[in-house]
Amino acid sequence: MCRVLKVKHSSYYYDWLSRDISEQQIHRNQSELLVRAAHSETKACYGADRLHAKLIEQGHDISLYMVRSIKEEHEIKCRRHKRFKITTDSNHNKLVYPNILNQQFDAKHPNESWVSDITYIWTNEGWLYLAGVKDLYTKELVGYAINKRMTADLVCRALNMAIKNKRPSQGLIVHSNRGSQYCSHAYHKIIK
Asked: How far is the C-alpha of 32 from the C-alpha of 50, rounded, in Å?
């Protein structure tokens, strides 16, 4: 650039050293302080859009792009809250088996006791429900099923997979919570 403008390199460098901070840089520095303050004020829960809206509401002149770039440049991140979803509904009048396992989780041999439950996984497409069946002796997941809905069919498919994979003998204890899926007629039919 110095060659094209026919300016001595040392002159350009000297001018650059003695020059004050630009208006643009002053605005960016002020914006960074505002973003950091707003981020702390909101307990690190707001993303760029909500943070920008809050700053505008407070009367600050800052663009959404500026908020995003400051957050990215200085690695200002939101705290993630674990999303909670209830998976057990024990409040029903359906058939419930007695608790034969009675907190005795130390099985003596494979296919003596299985435990089953449903959990949930948050994905980009939304919630996915996972039903699993675990052998207490081997600690192996012997059956599982995944679905977008938490239905009796989900737990039935997991139990059917476990039965198909392990072919247990009569007398197997299948333990689960008292959620309505596990108390369905279809699930009881498979257990019988």
From this structure: 16
